[in-house]
Design goal:
Layout (H helix, E strand, L loop, with lengths): L4 E10 L2 E11 L4 E5 L6 H8 L7 E6 L2 E2 L1 H7 E4 L11 H5 L1 H5 L4 H9 L20 H13 L5 E5 L7 H16 L4 E5 L3 H7 L2 E5 L6 E6 L8 H5 L2 H17 L9
Parallel strand pairs: 3-8, 3-9, 6-7, 7-8
Antiparallel strand pairs: 1-2, 1-4, 4-5, 9-10
Amino acid sequence: MTVSLSGRGVGHSFGDLTVLDGLDFEARPGEVLGLVGPSGCGKSTLLELIGGLRQPDRGRIEIDGKEGEDARLERCAWMPQKDCLLPWYTALDNAGLALRNLGRSKGEARAEAGLLFDRFGLAGFEQSRPDQLSGGMRQRVAFLRTLVSRKDVLLLDEPFASLDAITRAELQEWLLPVLDEKDHTVVLVTHDVEEALYLSDAVLALTSRPGRVAASMKAPSTTGFPREQVVTDPGFTERREELLALLRQSSPSIAGGAR
């Protein structure tokens, strides 16, 4: 079963520097919550707070009504911006690393992770080292590693930021049906408003530091349609421009052409 995630009045500071201030957010079981905002507004810090790597200075974060770092650490899996694949491991062993951390033997981890390689477009590359994989394939291995951790909440920190535009679009289209299965509650951090609207059920836009809620909106339905048809639909583009306008108003540093 998937879980709910919520935050009320969440704030955090590093010394005299206030990074987040009074955030309220909520994701229902199985939802994808997108987080957008300018650099330095506290998006990654918020993921650390949700994941239990830090405790908020103010407010509270709950997963299925339970508060506390241990409860969040137990139920969250993090996918950072960099794939962090171990260069001396094969793709299969990298994908199974989370299972090894759960106590599985090497053979058990390989067998369980290997079942997903075809679904993730990685069949035939099980024995490849990271330097033999494309950037997009490395990100698929990293996401597979996150998925097999069997955590209820997935925290995705700009997972496609380092990829070229074509590969990024391809992976967005690949990831959407995986997220649509609603097996996990997901928080997706991205600088790309279009990506947030395409992959998320709801989007939370933050102001420049200290990060506060500038806007919260439901994302348009994207299920069952090709990506290019979705992102060029007038309803989608109208929502994208509305969100960009709200971000520009609350974050003057965002350039007019930013995505």
